[in-house]
Amino acid sequence: MLLRRIPTVHYAGASMATLPPEKIAAGAWGLAAATLLGILIIAGSRTLNHFDAALVGYTFATLFAAFGITYRYAMWLRRPPTRMYWRRGWSIFLTPRYLGRNLLEALRRFGLAFAANQFISRRSRLRGIAHWLIMWGCVLAAAITFPLVWGWIHFETVPGDLDTYRTFVFGFPVQDFKVESFFAFLIFHGLVWSAFLVIAGVMIAFRRRMIDHAAVSVQQFVQDVMPLVLLFAVSVTGLMLTASYTWMRGYGYEFLAILHAMTVIFTLLYLPFGKLFHIFQRPAQIGVSFYKDAGRREPARCGRCGGPYASAMMVRDLMSVERDLGFSYEMPDRSVDHYQRICPRCRRALFGLAQGREWSDRLTDRLEAE
């Protein structure tokens, strides 16, 4: 087995010329994403005419999050295994012969894996409920918060009718509704409903992490506990704002607004670095499922026993990834040219035979020496 040694690069005080190409490329993608989002904010708010300056902190936090998420995603895609899955997944999905069927299957799997969180529910029903509540609470909050923060959506009273609001999307009038209507109650309290969902999910998740000894033994504060704390803090401070202006006549509203802003901004800054980054990684699992389906059409057969043991495409791709990582499992002097072309059962058998041969040779040498 050969391991390619990669020279260590020290970045302290380093110029752009000494940075690895993958970091430069990922930084360019991140900058492009943040720039594109900035352009969309300016355009969607009609050159900032509908942009609320009080929300500028949120805006810069989302721009940083866009840069960080795109940078980390680009670096993630440059890993040889991930890059292989990514390329194979798209090539299989876009195969003209199966494209129509793949589109329908992608929608079905998106509904089961994403909307219903089936992949979590299979492990534990309670974990599935917690994950579902947190996910949909965050999705609802993001769908409301970001368009409002970026100035893409705003509300104005209809001229001559102060009891009616008009919704503007990207500066275009879309819908009128009465201020006291049930529809207005639902949309103006959308963040309240999302906070209730998130808090319920977080409480269930905390309960598991306190009583499940298997989870407690492997959990880490930064990776496992902090995301729950941040989501809980954002939700609770948001509810406190609602309570302040609804029942307390604005008592403590300024302090609560600053506290809520701090929790939201810190959560946005944490997104690219912590466990919450899996939100953006998870959809790629749909492509992996298509890769596995395509692999079943062509099984690989063991070079020793001739039995099927894996996907032939996966075996070829694994050999390619190993070469990219600097590992060499070729066996040019054997009947089977590569170790990956041997099934796990035969590998165990060969391992046992090798140990037996080694033990026999040493025993023979010992007897001859005596």
How would you describe this protein?
This protein has 15 helices and 5 strands. The chain is mainly alpha-helical. It is elongated, with a radius of gyration of 28 Å. Strand 1 and strand 2 (161-169) form a beta hairpin. Helix 1 (21-44) packs antiparallel against helix 2 (56-77). Helices cover 65% and strands 8% of the residues. The model is unreliable at 1-14 (pLDDT under 50). The protein has a 3-stranded antiparallel beta sheet with strand order 1-2-3. Strands 4-5 form a two-stranded antiparallel ribbon. The two termini are 36 Å apart. The chain has a domain at 298-369.
Helix and strand pattern: HHHHHHEEEHHHHHHHEEHH
Number of strands: 5
Helix percentage range: 55-70%
> Which structural class best describes the helix and strand composition?
mainly alpha
| Unreliably modeled segments | 1-14
Shape: elongated
**Sheet having the most strands:** 3 strands, antiparallel
**Separate helix tally:** 15
Strand order of the largest sheet: 1-2-3
| β-sheet strand percentage | 5-15%
The average pLDDT is: 87
Summarize the structure.
With 370 residues, this protein is mostly helical.
What's the structural blueprint in terms of helices and strands?
Layout: H1 21-44, H2 56-77, H3 80-93, H4 99-115, H5 118-121, H6 125-149, E1 153-158, E2 161-169, E3 172-178, H7 182-188, H8 190-211, H9 213-218, H10 221-247, H11 253-270, H12 278-281, H13 284-295, E4 299-301, E5 308-311, H14 312-325, H15 344-369
Antiparallel strand pairs: 1-2, 2-3, 4-5
Helix pairs in contact: 1-2, 2-11, 3-13, 6-8, 8-10, 10-11
